[in-house]
Amino acid sequence: PSKVFSSVQSKMATDKVHIRHCILYEFQQGRNAVRACESIYSFLSEGVVSYNVCAFWFKRFK
């Protein structure tokens, strides 16, 4: 693999972990998956994480 591809792949993995931490934070604040997505959209950008992904992680955290 090229260095560029490896760098992009590494950044994507880091971004996913970062978003997962954001979802966990929202969960710990007592929000539901919909509110978590809305909150994440407000400080990152809309579409960065789907409701289905938030709901999946909320189920895993319970």
TrEMBL record:
Segments forming domain Mos1 transposase HTH: 16-62
InterPro entries per the UniProt record, alphabetical: Mos1_HTH
Family annotation (Pfam families): HTH_48 (PF17906)
Name of the featured protein: Mos1 transposase HTH domain-containing protein
Origin species: Harpegnathos saltator
